UniProtKB/TrEMBL annotation:
It comes from Candidatus Muproteobacteria bacterium RBG_16_64_11. Keywords: Coiled coil. This is Transporter. InterPro entries: MdtP/NodT-like (IPR010131), OMP_efflux (IPR003423). PANTHER family: BLR4935 PROTEIN, OUTER MEMBRANE CATION EFFLUX PROTEIN.
Amino acid sequence: MSARAGAAPEAVLTLAEAEQLALEHAPWFAHHRSNVEAAAERAVYEGSLPDPQLTLGVVNLPTDTYRLNQDGMTMVNIGLRQQFPPGDTLKLRARRAEQELTREQARLEIERRALLKQVRQTWLELYYQRQALRVLADMRALAQRQLAAAEDRYRAAQEPQQMLLKQRQMLARLDERELMLNAQQARLRAQLARWIGPPAHRPLPAELPVLPPLPAEFETAQHPEVLAARAGLEAARAEVGIARQEYKPGIMLDVSYGARRATPDGQSRPDMVTALVTFDLPLFTAKRQDRKLAEKQTLEAAARYESEDKHRELRAMYETMRAEHSALGARVKLLSERLLPDVQREARVSAAGFARDVGELREARQKEFDTQLELTRLRVDLARSHSELLYIIGENQP
């Protein structure tokens, strides 16, 4: 027995597995996780004072001898200098960093939902292509049987050449359709491989998966896009506060100790302590502080408009997708419960010998195949709209 014959069949790629692989291995999702980690680190240091400065030097060294004990004003100096930003700048910087962290966390959730939506929709479309190829294989088998029958009838002078050519054209059309579906399937697998890698080329299961249930209510205020916009607004407000603090003076505190050498005849000299306080003087504010404050206030207004627009956009998206989802569900119910059973009964009756001619039988079978394809298309579209709603509303995470 060959190795191929003894090998176990390749495991199918379920939608749940594709989702998990994407969340674990998609590079651009990892990129957003890194942004959250960076924002968390920034939130720690933004509210801290700048590092103090150490000053070392020699003060009032005479240039004729360069001796430390020649002049009583010569000192070896060591000091510390600390800068204090104006007003509540540190507190506001910390608040801004916290809001930026909140925004990055919301963006990570946005990307998680977007990634799941794209993986789901690509997987579902790939599932449709596979199902369409199966139905197409049945249609092709029927077309080949009908072509063989038409050739027999033509050789027996029971059917004109026109009918034979028509059967050949129908088979060629099916072959063309198969080529198109295979090309679309290859494109979808390549797109899926971007997120999950080589497992994208594994076969799919025969049945549609069950997606997570839709929550009963939708609160736009809890959507991560709104949370990100709100955090952006709060960060912009902190920026306005920081700009206002620049009208206040910053402070620099400088303390130093100067050690003096004894005189040449051995008499000691007292050491010196120096303490300085330096203030900024924000006197000319028209072209700097005023302009900066106006800029930050304008950005705050823009962030507020963005937050309001997100509420409206998400509500409109939700209402649109809800209506589409309901309509697709009604169409699936109609086709599966009424239309497809009637079409299948018509095909069975025609195949049992009640059709008036071969053309009527062919038309009945073609109608059955087309209805099966249409129902599969609608079921996949219903699942795709379900995934759109999960992006908007959210889902319970394990």
